[in-house]
Amino acid sequence: MNNSLKNDLLIRAALAQPTERPPVWMMRQAGRFMKEYWEIKNKYSFLEMCKTPEIAADVTMLPIDLLGVDAAILFSDILVTAEAMGGDLSFEQGVGPRFSNPVRNLQDAEKLSVDCLDKLQYVADAIKVIQQRLDGKVPLIGFAGAPFTILSYLVEGGSSKDFKLTKTLLNNEPALAHNILQKIADVTVAYLNMQIDAGVNALQLFDSWALALSWNDYKEFAHQYNDYIISRLNREHVPVISFCKGSSVFAPLMAETKPNVVSVDWNADLLNIKKALPAGMAVQGNLDPFVLYADKPVIKKKILDLFERMRGEEGFIFNLGHGIMPDIPFDNVKYAVEVIKEFRY
Length: 345
Ligand code: 1CP
Hints:
Elements (H helix, E strand, L loop, with lengths): L8 H6 L20 H7 L4 H6 L1 H14 L5 E2 L6 H5 L4 E4 L3 E4 L6 H5 L10 H14 L5 E6 L1 H10 L7 H9 L1 H25 L3 E6 L7 H16 L9 E5 L2 H10 L4 E3 L6 H7 L5 E6 L8 H15 L5 E5 L9 H13 L3
Parallel strand pairs: 1-4, 4-5, 5-6, 6-7, 7-8, 8-9
Antiparallel strand pairs: 2-3
Helix pairs in contact: 4-7, 7-10, 8-9, 8-10, 9-10, 10-11, 11-12, 14-15
Coproporphyrinogen I (1CP) binds next to strand 3.
EC number: 4.1.1.37
GO molecular function, one term: uroporphyrinogen decarboxylase activity
Catalytic activity: uroporphyrinogen III + 4 H(+) = coproporphyrinogen III + 4 CO2
């Protein structure tokens, strides 16, 4: 599959092979900061966009055509696994994701289905349409949410600032938490292997909210499930990227799960993190996304500072430490991509 890629910078960097410059893609690169996204979004609901392969493909292609990034990421959401398991999911304007049937006790947990891959067939269909559209131009990244992050949405019933209900569940009813986490992990293994079968070129596991956890709780409620998932992927030709906010702290544990790439938030010095990882493990990151609100000379300087720091390192993918915010000016994102693509090692 990768032999047929015209631009395989991302795959080479993920495998810690030499590249002439760092590849660039950005989390949430197909999203609300683009007027072309809104032109589509104004016609459909978010879930309709995810579930209609042609529309998901249209949106996936926006940053390829308009920004010229080195990888596409499937247009979908981490919460589709929770929906397939039985979560009643909606996305409300200005509110974000909401589950009307939160999972808070054993009866709720028992209602969650593990045998639900057929409900996610639309994702495999979207991957096939996207690969036809890409025609080998750049690799396609598939993804899923990691069990702890998905659990937090199911328990809280939506987004949360402090994860109070989730952490209380972990503290007071760890057996129940493990019961739910194991179900999510089993669905995630099947779901990611389905994405590999459908033709993705790389995978990213998003544990966005792991930062909320202590070291011991991360090991017990996040790390062991991420390890369970990554070790069960049919990944010989598909590099795996492990992302969490909190990676500055948890990188040594993330490395134990043997991803190809650790995606790092913006708190840590990226070179120091890379040097502490096993040889041959790549890093992705780690510009603070707020830099993209700044003036262009500042954007350029901060990117080049990062690149100078990483000069000589094989296995470096440029990304933000977290996703692009919806009100970041499009022009600044485009400028950042241009700066990156002009750079040479
Ligand atoms: O209203 C809208 O237009 C929907 C906004 C939107 C978009 C564009 C949501 C709702 N999800 C997405 C797409 C999305 N989500 C992608 C597509 C590919 C791309 O990156 O361009 C991806 C990979 C995600 C993953 C995702 N969804 C994460 C993990 C990444 C991260 O940012 O940490 C998380 C946490 C979500 C949950 C989610 N989806 C959407 C919202 C508003 C939220 C809530 C975020 C929160 O709780 O703060």
